[in-house]
Amino acid sequence: MNFFDKVPGELKLFIGGLMALHGKQTLVKAGVTHVLSAINYHMEPAMIDGYEHFQIKLEDDEDEDIIQFFPKTNKFIDDALRGGGGVLVHCAMGKSRSATFTLAYLLWRFRDLDPAKALAFAREGRPVVEPNVGFYEQLQLYHEMGTPDVIEGQELYRRWQHKKEVEFARFRGKAPGAERLLYEDEYMRAQAGVEQEVETELSHAIRCRHCKFALAAEGYVHPHLPPEPPYRPPSYPGDAKCDQIMLKPLSWMRAEFSKEWTKGTIYCPGCKISLGSYSWHGGHCSCGSWVVPAIALRESDIVHRGEITDETGAPGPLKRGLEKL
């Protein structure tokens, strides 16, 4: 394995390992003027002397949030190349971290590439490149997002962060941090506009059967399907139905989730009656499906759109709840 290799084509873009920096004459001959270090390592001044240098300190760990750095590394690489320079992107071995940043740049600059094509292209120059599973997943996410110049606030990125937070908490046997969760109603309001979203929620509301408090829009239900044999638990019959609904986290649950319990009770924010339970580590629905996280409301304690009527049979009053949270 070479200490560094050139990405095919006209770009003076190179992928390599830490040892590449010990061959300064070779780098200068190749036209390298800029060095991007993707490594959690103290870079000795002598190693980077004479280069424009930018370092991202991170481990080759699939749980690292590497996508957040793509806009900065893309700009560093692009400014250097368009200015007539050459860029060495290196990590420890020139396989995972350095390859990931290089692929992110290729995806950003050449929009006809997808992650698989970009990886195959880079391997033509350096066959050993192999982003770890988590990094490759983030390259796919970046491509699906449209390779934006701003990552924070992107819907797919927020959902990915939420998913990783819940998974990591489950792995630790703890609850996720309440302020790091994605609350579906807050997020959708920010995307669609408050008034528009509130009216949609109220007209498609799942409500407390006891006080008619609007709890959730139908779109905030966590969908799941009954498992098929042989994956259905033996204690669940084949015709088992759901007697509860599974919800995504909503802002009115924040106070309960702030306790950072791994499981607990869900109370109606209107009348304080118990409506169900939650478990961050997952739970079985009555249909036999295993749902993670399991935020479950009993069907017997809620009503869906069109089910509320007064004594005359006309639609009953709705306590507007979602817009106050």
Features:
alpha+beta, 17% strand, 14 strands, Protein-Tyrosine Phosphatase, Chain A, disordered C terminus, 325 residues, Tyr_Pase_AS, 2 domains, 31% helix, EC 3.1.3.48
N/C terminus separation: 58 Å
For this structure, the CATH topology of the largest domain is Protein-Tyrosine Phosphatase, Chain A
Unreliable spans = 308-325
Profile the largest sheet.
5 strands, mixed
Number of helices: 10
CATH architectural type of the largest domain: Alpha-Beta Complex
Helix/strand order: EEHEHEHEHHHHHHEEEHEEEEEE
What is the residue-averaged pLDDT? 88
- How many strands in all? 14
Oligomer: single chain
- CATH-assigned homologous superfamily of the largest domain: Protein tyrosine phosphatase superfamily
Structural class: alpha+beta
Shape: elongated
Radius of gyration equals: 26 Å
Strand content: 15-25%
Helix coverage percent? 25-40%
The first-level CATH class of the largest domain is given as Alpha Beta
Number of domains: 2
What spatial order of strands do you see in the largest sheet? Answer: 1-2-5-3-4
Pfam family, one: DSPc
Family: Belongs to the protein-tyrosine phosphatase family. Non-receptor class dual specificity subfamily.
EC number: 3.1.3.48
GO molecular function, one term: protein tyrosine phosphatase activity
